Amino acid sequence: MAFRVICISAVDGARGEEVAPAVAQALSYRLVDEEIVRKAAQEADVDVSQIAEVERRRSMATRLLDSLGSNTSLATFAMAGYVPGHEMPTDSDLRGLIRATIEELADRGDAVIVAHAASMALGPRDDVLKVMLTAPHEARAQTIAAQRGLDDKAAAKQVDKGDGNRADYLKRFYGITHESPADYDLVLNTDSLGPEGAVKLVVQAAG
């Protein structure tokens, strides 16, 4: 079965920022993250508090996607549950707009979605491949240390903080108290596979 939409989630330090763009490029799929939607809403001067209704949110989501064009590249990377260097988003209206945009993007197909819990937002759709990228804590800390110029202790704290933010996000917005591998179709360890190996498996699974 060929999947028209790939949702990629990753814990902090699992090198998702390398995997997601490569998957999109290999499949010739559009790549959109949550930060792109946020910036598009800001540039369009959207008052998210005025679009709380579902239909108005979907209408605005359509307009935002149309304004982005068909070849959106990855801007500020926003992985599921944690955005390095940013505070957790708390505006429920903005969350609603982003969720509506994710759903609209999935309806259009041919997309790699890197957004907060996009796999959860899209539910049991059979045209969506839900991918989770993970790695052992120590390996993730080493990656974070290299990426951000931190010592081992500080990097380990960043990993723990990211995991805590992710768990809090899933609980607050989706009522998920325990994230399970069964929530995903494909769970990959990027420490053992490497980003290139993970990309190959995702592309193969995408059909």
Description of the molecule:
The chain is α/β, with parallel strands linked by helices. The chain has one domain (5-206): P-loop containing nucleotide triphosphate hydrolases (Rossmann fold), CATH 3.40.50. 53% of the residues lie in helices and 12% in strands. The protein has helices spanning 16-27, 34-43, 54-68, 92-108, 118-121, 137-148, 152-174, 190-206; strands spanning 5-10, 30-33, 111-114, 128-134, 186-189. The longest helix is centred in the last third of the chain and has 23 residues, at 152-174.
Features of the shown structure:
Rossmann fold; globular
Short summary:
The protein has helices at 16-27, 34-43, 54-68, 92-108, 118-121, 137-148, 152-174, 190-206, and strands at residues 5-10, 30-33, 111-114, 128-134, 186-189. With 207 residues, it is of the alpha/beta class. Strands 2-3-1-4-5 form a 5-stranded parallel beta sheet, sandwiched between helices.
